[in-house]
């Protein structure tokens, strides 16, 4: 900056006073109530459930006796193999026999959420083979397979062993609920009580 520029600058700044430093930044954190959280969760669930199609022409048809399997990335092969053999106890069953597709979708989605809240990691879904279903055989089975692949909480599924319903049922592995993740993290925290 030359002398002329500096004198012009000083002339312009002659009446300026610095701001006082006692300004306070106010951050107001929005605190949501339990009711608001419940409504928000219900809305999210309704949106997710609405994405599960009820149009039979938008699902890939499965054969009544076909063995089906699905596994997301991150599920270990040994874990998936044990699931396929019925090696994990399923204390929670969802029976979709005799339900219309819309009822089955509601029941399936709701029961998965309930199972996760209870801490269930493996559930069984029973839908039957549907050999005589219309517009094509295994309609309910085809819907269930399609829906489960779209539900983020479902990590894997496999057709059940014959003793548990065979190709008319599925073993389903669920992701841990957020509460169970926190509990597991606290339980397995390395270095706790170690000196």
Explain how this protein is built.
The chain is of the alpha+beta class and 195 residues long. The chain has a single domain (47-183), classed as Ribosomal Protein S8, Chain: A, domain 1 (2-Layer Sandwich). The chain is built from 6 helices and 5 strands. A 5-stranded mixed sheet has the order 1-4-5-3-2, with helices on both faces. The longest helix is centred in the middle third of the chain and has 18 residues, at 101-118. The N and C termini lie far apart (63 Å). This is DNA endonuclease SmrA. InterPro entries: Endonuc_SmrA, Smr_dom, Smr_dom_sf. It holds the Pfam family Smr. Keywords: Endonuclease, Hydrolase, Nuclease. One of its GO terms (molecular function) is DNA endonuclease activity.
Quick structural summary:
GO terms for molecular function: DNA endonuclease activity. The protein has helices spanning 3-12, 34-50, 77-84, 101-118, 139-150, 178-187, and strands at residues 69-71, 92-95, 122-126, 154-159, 169-174.
Number of strands: 5
Total count of domains: 1
If helices are DSSP runs of H or I spanning 4 or more residues, what is the number of helices? 6
Residue windows where pLDDT falls under 50 for at least 5 positions: none
Intertermini distance = 63 Å
**General form:** elongated
Order of helices and strands: HHEHEHEHEEH
Q: Give the % helix.
A: 25-40%
Strand order of the largest sheet: 1-4-5-3-2
Report the average pLDDT across residues.
Answer: 85
- CATH class term: Alpha Beta
User: Main sheet, how many strands, which sense, barrel?
Assistant: 5 strands, mixed
**Helix/strand structural class:** alpha+beta
**Radius of gyration from the CA trace?**
28 Å
CATH topology annotation:
Ribosomal Protein S8, Chain: A, domain 1
State which percent range the strand residues make up. 5-15%
- Per CATH, the architecture is 2-Layer Sandwich
Pfam families: Smr (PF01713)
Protein name: DNA endonuclease SmrA
InterPro entries: Endonuc_SmrA, Smr_dom, Smr_dom_sf
Domain Smr: 94-175
């Amino acid at each position: 900056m030359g002398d002329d520029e500096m004198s012009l600058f000083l002339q312009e700044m002659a009446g300026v006073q610095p701001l006082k430093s006692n300004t306070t930044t106010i951050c107001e954190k929005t605190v949501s109530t339990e009711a608001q959280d419940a409504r928000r969760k219900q809305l999210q669930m309704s949106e997710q459930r609405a994405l599960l199609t009820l149009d039979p022409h938008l699902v890939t048809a499965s054969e009544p006796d076909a063995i089906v399997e699905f596994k997301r990335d991150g599920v270990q092969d040994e874990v998936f193999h044990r699931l396929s053999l019925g090696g994990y106890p399923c204390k929670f069953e969802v029976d979709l026999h005799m339900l219309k597709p819309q009822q089955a979708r509601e029941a399936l989605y709701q029961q998965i959420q309930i199972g996760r809240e209870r801490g269930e990691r493996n559930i069984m879904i029973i839908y039957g083979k549907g050999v005589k279903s219309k517009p094509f055989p295994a309609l309910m089975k085809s819907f269930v397979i399609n829906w489960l692949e779209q539900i983020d909480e479902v990590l894997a599924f496999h057709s059940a062993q014959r003793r548990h319903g065979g190709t008319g049922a599925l073993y389903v592995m669920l992701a841990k609920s957020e509460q169970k993740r926190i509990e597991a993290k606290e339980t397995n925290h390395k270095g706790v009580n170690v000196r």
